[in-house]
Structure formats: C-alpha cells, structure tokens
Design goal:
Elements lengths: L4 E7 L2 E6 L2 E6 L3 H12 L2 E6 L9 H13 L2 E3 L4 H20 L10 H20 L6 E5 L6 H8 L4 E5 L7 H4 L5 H8 L4 E4 L2 H15 L7 E4 L2 E7 L6 H13 L5 H12 L4 E8 L6 H14 L7 E8 L6 H21 L7 E4 L5 H10 L2 E4 L8 H9 L6 E5 L12 E3 L4 H13 L2 H17 L2 H24 L1
Parallel strand pairs: 1-4, 1-6, 4-5, 6-7, 7-8, 8-10, 11-12, 11-14, 12-13, 14-15, 15-16
Antiparallel strand pairs: 2-3, 9-10
Helix pairs in contact: 3-4, 4-5, 7-8, 9-13, 9-14, 11-12, 11-15
The structure holds adenosine-5'-diphosphate-glucose.
C-alpha cells in the first residue's frame, strides 16, 4: 500500500443534507476547503473531519450512508454529538480562540466545560486518525479547532511525521497570554514536527509566546522541545489560479447568461459609465463588513456625483449563526443596508445589492469578472483568499483591489490600494481613487500581483509545506536514533 497524507480539519470538504432518510453530499465553502480541495483530489490522501450533521440527530442507517458517501470522496467522518459541537466548536473554538486570535479580546468567553469538551473532541480526532494510520503515512493537521491534536498523535506515534498549519492569525504574546490554558495549547501545537503560518509576523508571535510562556529555547525558525527540534515557518496560502483564470476565460466566451449576469448587464447598459464594487466574505465580525458599509455611506455623502453610478454587490455567506455576536452582526448589517438604500436610492437605482447566501462557483466568477473594484476590508484576516481569486479572474488584468492592511494577504500585495479598515475617510478616498483609476494604471498594478499568484499557486504552497515537513522529519529521525 502506498504511503498517504492524512489531512485533518474540523470540517470535511463536504456538506451533507439528510431529508427523509435520503442522504446527499455537496462540496463546502470556506477558505480551507476551497484551498485544499485540489490537493486532495490529485494525490494519495485521506481527509478526516466532521461531516456537518450531529451524530445524535441521525439514525445508524443514515450514519452508515454518510460514511459510505464520504469514503467515495476519500473522506472519513468524525461523529460529533450536538453537545460536543456546542461546546467544542461554537464554544471553545469560536467563542475563545477565534475572537482572541483576531484581537477581539472582549468577545472571549472562558468556560471550563467548553475547554474540557475541546480536549475530548481533539482526543476523538486522534483516535480516528490512529485507526486509519499506516506506517510511513504523514499527517497534516489544520487550524485552530485542533491545536491539541499534534501532541496527542505524537504521544502515541512518535515515529509519524506531523505537520500543522494555522489558517487564522497567531496573535501577539500580550493577547495570547490572557488565555487561561495557554501552556496546554502551546504544548499541544508543539507535538508537530513543522508548524506553518501564513505570515512571518504570526510565526514570530508564536515563537515569542513559546519562549516567554514555556521558556523553551527558540531560534528564528525552530524551537527546542526536550530532545526534539520543532520547525516553524511561514507559508502564505494561495489558490488554484488556473481554475479561476480558466473559468473566467470560459465565462467570457459563453453565450448563455445566468439571471445574475443579465441583471448586471442591464445595469451597465442603463448607466453606461457605471461601476460595480464587489464585497465577498463569510458574515463574520472580523471581516469589517459593517465598517465597509459605513465607508460607502460616507463616500456617497461626500461625493454625490457618484449617485446612480456605483453599486456595491455585497455577498455574505451565513456563518456560525448559533453564536450571539454573529446574530447581532447580521442584524446590524441588515439595518445598515436598509439605511443606506433608504437614504440614497432613486426610482431606478439602489446602491447596495445584498445577498445573504452562498453562490455557486459560476456566479462567483461572474461577479469577479464583472466588478470594477473589489472592496475587501477585514479588521483582521489570516490571509483572505478572495483577494487572490479576484485578481486571478481578471483575464485582461483590469480591476482595482482595495485591501485592508490587516489581512495576511496584504504582505503580498503592495500594489493594491491598502487601507486601514477603521478609517472611513481613507476608505472613501480609496473608493474614489479606484473608481477613477485609468485602465493602464490598473493593469500595471495587477500585472505583478497576478504573476505572483500564478507562480505561487495552492499546489506550490502545499508542495513547499510538505517538503519542509519532510526536512523537519529528517531531523526528527536523527533525534530518535541518537
Ligand atoms: P475564511 O475566513 O473562510 O478562511 P477566505 O480566505 O476569504 O476566508 O475564504 C473564503 C472562501 O469562500 C473563498 O474561497 C471564497 O471564494 C468563498 N466564498 C466566499 N463567499 C462566498 C459565497 N457567497 N458563495 C460562494 N463562495 C464564497 C480562513 C481564514 C482566512 C484564510 C483562509 C485560508 O479566515 O484568513 O485566508 O482560511 O487559509
């Protein structure tokens, strides 16, 4: 049997729907799933994670059907009960780690039962991994829901290579030190042979936390853990460039149009020099959606000459609707969209088109290719793949990217219009600059960015990570034979 890579993440890259015993499987949306999908499809791998339905809300026959459909996709589901999800996922992961790692300290809600559930669920993942593990396999663990997993695997199988990649920021020591279970978390992560982050800053913050909290000896990109050396490095995640670029080319050659494209074309025909501004995110307080809307309001107030000439297409994918802050945010955004549309609309124009749902890939491409400006203003974002997808889809290299300097991706995109997402005035000026930017300037800015994404695509990212894991494992073997 060939050696395989076991990919482990909280969610499998699929969604399951169960209706009257009928089970269906769909691909899921989200940065991690979208990014890792091509690697999973094209290599010897197995993906372990939760399939999206609570195990105590389905009967055994349905569970068996889900398992079988998952295996077809090279996936193994981890059964999680409703209570485990409440405490481990909505509780500890999304009410402690997510807000804290994005610098929303005031949202962190420490609860001992949630922490206990987090440990138990990480153990459950470890058991299922061990059941599916063969000698020579490698394990690649993803993200903040599974921070304890690397050490749990290492305790049982020190011979196996374990890599860990974090998709969200790692905060500065001053923030991280506030977590009551900070030592256990760091020790859990340090079970990996290689720890990867999107940027050098996150890597630096992690090393500094280890050095100051655990007092372990650290170097620029390695940490001494007893007799082991753990490697730490930055790997800025990318996208499947060809998929987006080719889909954009195909879309432009196609005669058939979706109703969305027809509506967009009608608007552009009605007002010939009109411009579309695009905003796409999961509905999350880290993404700065409310601030973005306020900046648009400020812009329309300050520059009335753009009335009827610009439209913001705002796409928000429903996310974590069980967590109170997400419910409040949804309400705030509904109100802001209502206020802006109420204040500025004319009989033939509404400034904001708001979609609160996930869109099929084809429509996503239509939006990327039809929008003159991408307005991406997260308050904090580990990377932000939408920025890369937009640029990859601009086949003629036109289009303007307005990008928050707080997103990991900003480190790779000096040629975008970089803004501070808390600064209404600056965002409004950036909108004006973007809407008036000559095509030659747009092209000359995007050329460099596009070239980089094309060269450093998601396959290259995964390849680099796996090569670094192999190198780190080499060190581990030398240590074991010493
Ligand atoms: P996310 O927070 O999910 O990911 P992001 O990187 O922007 O954020 O990825 C979102 C993905 O969802 C994109 O691939 C996008 O195309 C897709 N998407 C968004 N809205 C959609 C819609 N309405 N319909 C269909 N598809 C939609 C986390 C981190 C990020 C990090 C990624 C990857 O928070 O900072 O970039 O992981 O590491």
């Amino acid at each position: 049997m060939k050696n395989k890579t076991i990919i482990v993440s909280n969610r499998l890259p699929l969604n399951v729907s169960v209706e009257q015993g009928d089970v269906k499987v769909f691909p899921s949306v989200g940065g991690l799933a979208t990014g890792m999908k091509s690697i999973h499809q094209n290599s010897e791998s197995l993906w372990i994670g939760w399939a999206g339905v609570a195990s105590d809300e389905i009967d055994e026959i349905t569970a068996e059907k889900i398992k079988k459909l998952s295996i077809k996709e090279k996936c193994v589901p981890v059964p999680l009960t409703h209570q485990e999800l409440e405490e481990y996922y909505f509780g500890f992961s999304n009410r402690v780690l997510w807000p804290l790692f994005h610098y929303f300290m005031e949202y962190a809600d420490y609860d001992e039962t949630h922490w206990e559930a987090y440990k138990k669920v990480n153990e459950k993942f470890a058991e299922i991994i061990l059941e599916n593990l063969n000698e020579g396999d490698k394990i690649w663990v993803h993200d903040y829901q599974l921070l304890l997993l690397p050490q749990m695997i290492k305790d049982k199988r020190p011979d196996i290579s374990v890599g860990f990649f974090q998709h969200i920021p790692f905060p500065s020591y001053e923030i991280f030190r506030t977590v009551p279970w900070r030592e256990e978390i760091l020790k859990g992560m340090l079970g990996a042979d290689l720890l990867g982050f999107h940027t050098y800053d996150y890597e630096r913050h992690f090393i500094s936390s280890v050095s100051r909290i655990l007092r372990y000896e650290t170097n620029i990109n390695s940490i001494h853990v007893g007799s082991r050396t753990v490697k730490v490095d930055s790997f800025p995640m990318s996208i499947d460039y060809e998929k987006f670029h080719n889909a954009a080319i195909e879309h432009q050659l196609k005669n058939e149009k979706t109703s969305l494209q027809i509506r967009i074309d009608q608007y552009k025909e009605l007002v010939p020099d009109s411009k579309l501004i695009l905003s796409i995110d999961r509905l999350d307080y880290t993404k700065g959606i409310a601030q973005r809307l306020k900046a648009l309001e400020y812009f329309l107030d300050k520059y009335p000459q753009f009335t009827e000439k610009v439209r913001l297409i705002m796409l928000a994918v429903p996310s974590r609707e069980e967590v109170p802050q997400y419910q409040h945010l949804k309400k705030e955004i509904d109100e802001l969209v209502g206020r802006i549309n109420g204040k500025f609309s004319t009989p033939t124009w509404t400034p904001v088109w708001y979609f609160y749902r996930s869109l099929p890939f084809e429509e996503l491409i239509e939006l990327y290719t039809s929008s003159d400006v991408a307005f991406l203003t997260p308050i904090r974002d580990g990377m932000n793949l939408v920025a890369k997808e937009y640029i990859a889809s601009r086949t003629d290299q036109t289009g303007v990217l307005i990008l928050s300097e707080m997103a990991g991706v900003a480190h790779e995109m000096n040629d975008a219009l970089l803004i501070n997402p808390n600064d209404d005035k600056q965002m409004s000026e950036a909108l004006k600059q973007a809407l008036e930017m000559p095509l030659e300037e747009q092209i000359s800015r995007n050329k460099i960015i596009q070239k980089r994404i094309k060269r450093y695509n998601v396959d290259k990212w995964a390849e680099d990570f796996m090569e670094a894991l192999d190198a780190a494992s080499q060190l581990k073997e030398e240590n074991l034979t010493r």
